[in-house]
Design brief:
heterotrimer, A mainly alpha, B mainly alpha, C mainly alpha, B: mainly alpha, 0% strand, elongated, C: mainly alpha, two-stranded antiparallel ribbon, 20 helices, 2 strands, 76% helix
């Protein structure tokens, strides 16, 4: 129960940052928090108490008591997706600053209606 | 951009070799130890970024140029797809068709080694390209006053 | 060459083209256009081959389900692949000529190919996390394409689209984490088997609410529609056609259909049915009311996209066989006529330099092909017989009335009759809006500053004529299309057990 609640708390903080903050960079940081909260939840879902890392070594070739390795592969993919989105967002922020001369999102409002 | 002091340049010349070898080790043994293509590729890209930071744009681009990074990016991604399609000859897409030798060796997982290497090259070239695109963006005159 | 062997090529050919095009552009620039058109033409040929083929699964890497990732071909996926390939071909032909005024055309083609690969992957896969990965590939490519012109408004629209789209993806993967922790598998057929055996518990219901929020944001349903009226007009015209005609359907509506019909088990009269119908009704009404007052051509079309997606949601949410048939047929029709409308808007903008309806007029004299195809598409979307929009809207209205009598046998549920009446009213308002578009842009007097406009180039005309022929063909030949293409998709969706047997039993 605790992993779900704590990760939901970080997720909620990320959503608050996206909705309530006015600086573009703070919105980017909020989105990063949101994605990392979900990655954390995905890894913690696979945990087994008393489990071992899922690596087969020559001294111990049995797979008993491993934690679940599938969420770890999912999280690797998810981190890469987050990296791609972050790079694109930061590039857009730089270009937006070039055009509008401000990072304040309440002033970047040419599209209306 | 001129780069940094001679101490940083000398240290970088020594460290670049260590960073490259360590990241290639992480990439190549990805099927046995934690890491693999993505983690090793990120470290290698950090090595290239260190080059740009220590030596400045012009000198660093003589070692690794932007065009080389872009071409390596596309070709490595295409190699990944090619290895997957070559698996069709052995039964299906992505089938592991190379020999799996003795356990715990370097060559013991068939196509996984080549997929890791392709991903490592792609990720390093891609992250280096992203850094260069973001960092060498020319600033106009008026944007330098507001920090 | 049977359908089973060419399944991975639907994702492999666009990916390979997307990776190779920037390298080829360094060698020979003219080859880039030819290669892109050839790749999409190969996709169209392959899509036509898989239409009548028996359903099959493809095991990637020879790993059996539920351990490996599988590609599943059933009639619903075959219909979606045909829609994606057809519209992509017309858009690629159109952009050969339209995108010459932008710099870096090879990067545009590369991103376009990646977006097509992402959409094909979403509709063909049988694994939930694989669907999320391909959805992100398509979405990130589209974020880059919306900002392609790098002017003020395009950057602002792309940033807004990016933030909201990533928020939706965050909700989706949160739902995936919860579903994985409860069922222990990511294969959609295995999940369907476990949920149909054990029933819905509270965690799965919460995950389904998260999926509805996330995929609803991708499909632009009304509480989550705020990014669409900025993103779709600001993109270059062929990308607007791709976004409105394909992306909100393949990433949003298809995923909702697949999840809610197979994994969560939607039946007429359940809560999911009411929620989807309610969202569809809200989207229809809000979209068309906001669209009537618009004077920007592309922004008006974007609001109408929200409204028409409401029709599809209503048809899907009804849950009855006739309702699902109407919803799927309207999905097919909307791809054809909305893409054609955005391409016509693009050619009007290229020739006259303006998108505001008040500044246009009398273009039917100077631009015959554009105005003829624009009229065909406007009549289709308004639901005028014998064009294709009429048949699909009629089926949805009849299905709503039928559901009034058949949901609870013996009584008449008046709510469904109200829904049918609202649908007719929205269709009338759509007709009003498009009569305004026709009057201000195509007919009327030609202003003096537009006296020098000429028709657009031949390649763009061929692309528009292809889509117009599709609109007329789907309308006139609608019995054959319904029986051959849409009805098998509907049967495959309504029968959940056959999907489980196809993936796990084979």
């Amino acid at each position: 129960m605790t992993p779900y609640l704590l990760c939901s708390l970080i997720f909620a903080i990320g959503v608050y940052a996206i909705i309530a903050k006015k600086n573009l960079i703070k919105i980017v940081i909020g989105l990063l928090l949101l994605e990392y909260a979900v990655n954390l939840l995905l890894v913690l879902v696979g945990y087994k108490s008393g489990g071992k890392p899922p690596i087969i070594v020559p001294q111990n070739p049995s797979t008993a008591n491993f934690v679940d390795p599938l969420p770890q592969a999912l999280v690797l993919t998810s981190i890469v997706i987050g990296l791609g989105i972050t790079a694109l967002m930061v590039a857009l922020c730089i270009r937006l600053y070039e055009k509008y001369k401000t990072f304040d999102i309440s002033k970047i409002k040419r599209l209306k209606g | 951009m001129n780069g940094m002091s001679p101490i940083v340049k000398a240290t970088t010349k020594v460290f670049m070799g260590f960073i490259t070898v360590y990241s290639l080790n992480i990439i190549a043994y990805g099927h046995l130890t934690p890491g693999g293509g993505f983690a090793g590729g990120t470290m290698w890209a950090c090595g290239f970024i260190l080059l740009v930071l220590a030596f400045g744009k012009e000198d660093a681009f003589k070692i690794v140029s932007q065009r080389a990074a872009s071409v390596a990016d596309c070709l490595a991604a295409f190699t990944f797809l090619l290895v997957a399609i070559l698996g069709i000859s052995a039964g299906g897409f992505f089938v592991n068709f190379l020999s799996k030798g003795k356990e715990f060796n370097l060559v013991s997982a068939g196509t996984l080694l080549w997929l890791n290497i392709a991903i490592g090259i792609k990720v390093s070239a891609c992250l280096f390209g992203v850094f260069v695109a973001l960092a060498i963006f020319k600033r106009s005159k008026t944007s330098s006053e507001v920090q | 060459m049977n359908a089973h062997d060419i399944l991975p090529l639907f994702v492999g050919i666009p990916l390979g083209a997307g990776f190779l095009l920037p390298v080829i552009a360094l060698l020979w620039k003219k080859l880039v256009d030819i290669l892109a058109v050839l790749a999409v033409l190969a996709l169209v040929v392959m899509a036509l081959c898989v239409i009548g083929a028996p359903s099959c699964i493809y095991k990637m890497g020879n790993w059996p389900p539920p351990f490996g990732v599988n590609l599943v071909l059933d009639p619903m996926s075959a219909m979606m692949v045909l829609i994606i390939s057809g519209v992509s071909f017309a858009v690629t032909l159109y952009s050969v000529s339209y995108m010459t005024k932008f710099t870096s055309k090879p990067y545009y083609y590369s991103l376009l190919m990646l977006m097509i690969a992402g959409m094909n992957g979403v509709v063909l896969t049988g694994d939930l996390f694989n669907m999320y990965v391909f959805m992100e590939v398509g979405a990130i490519a589209s974020y880059g394409l919306v900002a392609f012109g790098t002017e003020h408004e395009e950057l602002e629209a792309s940033f807004k689209y990016l933030v909201l789209g990533s928020l939706g993806s965050g909700f989706i993967i949160f739902g995936i984490a919860l579903v994985y922790s409860n069922t222990g598998t990511l294969n959609m057929a295995d999940m369907a088997r476990i949920i149909s055996a054990g029933g819905l518990n509270r965690l799965i219901t919460f995950a389904s609410a998260l999926f509805l929020m996330g995929f609803g944001l991708k499909a632009a349903m009304v509480p989550f529609h705020a990014w669409l009226p900025d993103a779709h007009p600001s993109a270059p015209a062929p990308i607007s056609a791709m976004l409105s005609g394909l992306l909100i359907k393949a990433l949003g509506v298809y995923a909702i259909i697949r999840l809610f019909y197979h994994v969560f088990g939607l039946t007429p009269g359940s809560e999911y049915s009411y929620i989807l119908m309610g969202l569809g009704l809200l989207s229809m009404v809000v979209g068309v009311i906001l669209a009537v007052g618009q004077w920007d051509f592309k922004r008006l079309l974007a609001y109408h996209s929200i409204s028409q997606m409401g029709y599809v949601m209503l048809g899907i949410g009804l849950g009855t066989p006739l309702g699902l048939l109407g919803g799927l047929f309207h999905l097919l029709n909307h791809s054809a006529f909305k893409s054609l409308l955005f391409l016509c808007a693009g050619s009007v903008e290229q020739s006259t330099g303006s998108r505001q309806l008040r500044e246009l007029g009398g273009l039917c004299h100077r631009m015959p092909v554009t105005s003829a195809t624009c009229s065909v598409a406007s009549l289709s979307i308004s639901g005028v017989p014998p064009f294709n929009g009429f048949w699909s809207k009629l089926i949805i209205i009849v299905a709503a009335v039928q559901a009034a009598f058949t949901t609870v046998p013996g009584t008449v549920q008046a709510g469904y009759i109200v829904i049918a009446a609202v649908t007719v009213l929205v269709s009338f308002l759509t007709l009003v809006s498009f009569v305004k578009v026709q009057k201000y842009s195509l007919f009327g007097a030609l202003p003096d500053r537009l006296s020098g406009v000429r028709e657009v180039s031949t390649v763009m005309c061929i692309a528009m004529i292809m889509l117009a022929v599709a609109c007329i063909g789907l309308g006139v030949l609608s019995p054959f299309v319904l029986n051959g293409l849409v009805a098998p998709a509907r049967d495959a969706l309504m029968d959940g057990q056959s999907y489980i047997r196809l993936v796990l039993g084979g």
